[in-house]
Amino acid sequence: MAIPEFFKCPISLELLSDPVTLSTGQTYDRSSIEKWLSAGNFTCPVTMQKLHDLSMVPNHTLRHLIDQWLLKDNHHHHHFLDDEHDYGASKNLMFLKNVLESKDSTLEQKMQVLERVRFLSKDLPWKNEGLIQMGFLSLLLKLVFVPKNTQEIMGLVEKSLNCALKLMPFCYLGDLNMLLLEDSKFENFKLLLQQGSNLVKISLCNIIEMVCLQSSLATKELATKIGNDTKILQCLISYLNDFDQDFELSKAGIKGILSLITSSKYRENMVKQGLVGSLMTYIVELVERKDKEVGSKATKALELVLELEKGKEEFMVNEVSKEVIKALTKMVFIVSGDDEGSESAVNCLMVLCNESMEMSEEAICGGILTQLLLLLQSQCSGRAKTRARMLLKLLRSMWAKGPNMCCSVLDYF
User: Fold this and answer.
1) Helix H or strand E segment including 27
2) pTM score of the predicted model
């Protein structure tokens, strides 16, 4: 006894539990079609017709037939459920794949299929693993990195990237090596970083982060190519300057940058492309937002940059260096919910205060002593507290060398 096709929801591919019929005559499970509509899709998923009437009529007849079917073979139907569902799901996925691959499919048809894929990928990896087994990731990436993208198909690129990112945590990322094997695709990757929509840029930053933080050999060569490409590095740095216009893009940019400079191989490349100045301005602007996650990543990025002599030199001569010291002082406790963020802020200050008496004075006048004492009384990690004590000792020794330092030190020592 097989589950009849018309007992399945065309969206979820599951047995209908609450069937409702749209004005187009197509029937869906209520929860699935409501999610579809709430996502801003005002078309019928099967016919792709625009829905001028969004009303849903309960299909009592079909519900009754399904109930009868379940009762009729209650003893055996569970035995057939998985095999039949897998077979039916495979047929549906093959249809979706064919629409995406076909040159005859319209842009609108592909957009509708991508929305279906997005819905199905929500249940990964427990269900709909056929999306992975049937090679949807490779297909989606081909849709993204086709040469000569135009604004007309930017929506298709956005949806394809969105679906690809949902599949990537469960897929072999070696599919991304098409960017290595085909120069045209890598060039288009860079073009999208420069001229794509902000949603596309954010998605590509997420892909860069996945590629660089993966330790597998599958993406090692691609990470090297990305980390040594001047245009890509310049794009990521430029996103930091979009702080006011699009905070989400600047946040994606700092994540991409941090994933690259975690490896010392690409850190110097980033500094050569002007990372230090942009990062300093970013931290100054960021401190007012009190965003712990982004603050933690920004301070960590600065900490890594300051490990380079060139990085320290560029920091010291930058006109906003004193403003950054004040910002880092505030961040010691702003990011205290994240031990790594607090530790990075303290480590940055240790490097800078050790480098310059002027920086030490600026930190003290900015209230670093109070911040450190608050940090020591907080629930932060033992490592963060150890670094805080080390900074306090450093400042005390600096004061001993320079008695003209801000007199507020005397209040603490």
Assistant:
1) strand 27-29
2) 0.76
